[in-house]
Amino acid sequence: MYRRSAAAAVLLAAALTLTACSSDGDKADSGAEAKAKPPASSAAPDPADTPAPSADPNAKPAGPVLPDAKLTPKTGTFTAQEKQYLSGRVPEKMDPAAVLQSGQEACQRVARTAKHDKDAATGSIIAGEIAGAKDAINHLCPEQKPILAAAEKGFPDGTRPSPAAGTYRALTQATTCKWEAKGKDGTVLAASPEAAPQPGDKITATIPAGTAEFNSVGCYAWIPA
Predict the structure, then answer these.
(1) What is the pTM for the complete model shown?
(2) Residue 141 falls within a domain, yes or no?
């Protein structure tokens, strides 16, 4: 009887040991599997689900547009100038008033900037910082046309191929403004002085005839002096 009880005890202990080992193994496997499989939220997003960068709200759309006959606000009326601005610019299922507001905001930005600094307003148009400024000014705020006319004679900081010869003024007083004019063979025809401009100085560049490329950095924008 004692031998049977002892044998049963040995078998029971072995069974418990195997069960514990199996349980620990299952936990280890589950842990390894959890580490191997990241949560669903960490998966890389599908490029198709990534929203595209917002386009210029003042640019004319590439798709179907609202016919001129349907360019009517939900309340009130559009002026003749507003209708001219909206023509061919309103996507088929968009409220024309929303598109008009974008143009009006461009006009407001130009006017506010010009009130304090006309050079800054001109530079912001040249540099493309005020989207749709040209069309907005021509149709919605023609009083800003002198600013637009000045901007259309200038060019932004960076590389300008085959610029017209002459003297230009940088629309900045940054002491880091540097420039150079190169010929077709890459020869430097003219360049900014080695000494940095002093704060408050007007920065000018004289582009010689035959310049194939004008490069500038830190100069913001240029207009004829």
Answers:
(1) 0.70
(2) yes
